[in-house]
Amino acid sequence: MQKINHSIKFILELTRTLSILNRRFDSALGGLSLNEFTILHNLNIATNEKKRRIDLANKVGLTASGVTRLLLPMEKIGLIKNGKNENDARTRYVMISSSGKRMLDKATEDMKFLLNELIPSKEKSKLKALSELIAEIGARTYIK
Amino acid sequence: MQKINHSIKFILELTRTLSILNRRFDSALGGLSLNEFTILHNLNIATNEKKRRIDLANKVGLTASGVTRLLLPMEKIGLIKNGKNENDARTRYVMISSSGKRMLDKATEDMKFLLNELIPSKEKSKLKALSELIAEIGARTYIK
DNA sequence: GATAGATACTTGAGTTATCAAGTAATAATT
DNA sequence: AATTATTACTTGATAACTCAAGTATCTATC
Asked: Which residues make Cβ contacts (< 8 Å) with residue A139, sequence separation at least 6?
């Protein structure tokens, strides 16, 4: 008789589902990858609509170097702009452009539409709690 | 006033946490990546301890080609073995080796230890239900 | 029982991330 | 105020995926 470890099962389901979600969203967001969407979303709701790269890294869950490489093509096609921080010359602010906003708005609609199919409606009430648990796990896992 | 879409927040937390988990586990499982762990775990609990590559792809959430590339080095270092399917010459069975089992057993202990830190104990009772919800989302997202 | 379609897998080319190591600027310590 | 440590970011080398296209085999249909 095999004893099931629910924690392990949980992590394995999590990785599986997210790999699948990543592929699905990457081809359903009008050219935006899921990580690019996350970047634009976070810039859009940020105070003053700007953020440091390191804060974005934290928000997306990538490393600083991952963010550098993710932002490079996004700047090239004009979704974001760079600004400087007068108080700290090490940091380069990232800002969303107006074309970035347009992309984001469209992608957000696509996202809502898809999520409506993917998340069972009777489970929607549990989502807030689930998000919080997942965020908590992320926080505990994070090692700078 | 910004209306929060819990579905979107859920997806964003999911990607963030999983990116972090992946990095953490990749350096905490005694040389095994999280995906490699998943492969070995699934082979280990499979009937007859063998599986087709396509079934593994489904279990891990990768594409068939991703599995081909993931298994290649695993075979090279002897964690898995290949076998053939008498009834279908297209498929190549994958089996866990005894050294693979040893690796898995050690990694499973590491995994349990880490998860004990990462998952708040008061939330553990909810894990089964959450796994099921996440699996359901994965199933709905999956497009072969 | 030939042919068209589906399935299982692999491969080439490209993308997206990692880590480790480096640069430059700021903050803390003495 | 000089030194050391820390932080923000970038870069070179590499790993781990993806998609699209290919091969081989099996299944269904006529």
From this structure: none
Give the tens place of pLDDT for each residue, B99-133. Answer: 999 999 999 999 999 999 999 999 888 888 889 99
Query: Which of B32, B49, B134, B143 to mutate: most A Cβ within 10 Å?
Result: B134
| CB of A69 within 7 Å of some strand C atom | yes
A-facing residues of B in 96-125 (CB < 8 A) are 108, 111-112, 115-120, 123-124
- Lowest-confidence region among A129-133, B41-45, B80-84: A129-133
- Across chain B, the runs of DSSP E, i.e. the strands, are 50-52, 80-84, 92-96
Report residue B61 as tokens: 């959430």
Distance CA B89, CA B134 (A): 34
Closest CB to A136: pick one of B108, B120, B135.
Answer: B120
The DSSP element (H or E) to which B13 belongs, if any, is helix B6-26
Q: What's the maximum distance between 2 C-alpha atoms anywhere in chain B?
A: 64
Q: State the Cα–Cα distance between residues B94 and B75, nearest whole angstrom.
A: 9
Are residues B12 and A38, on separate chains, in Cβ contact within 8 Å? Answer: yes
Q: How many residues does chain B have?
A: 144
- Beta-bridge mates of residue B80: B96
- Give the amino acid at A112: K
Q: B83 vs chain A: nearest CA distance in angstroms?
A: 25
- Within 8 A of A11 by CB-CB distance, chain B residues are 21, 34, 111, 115
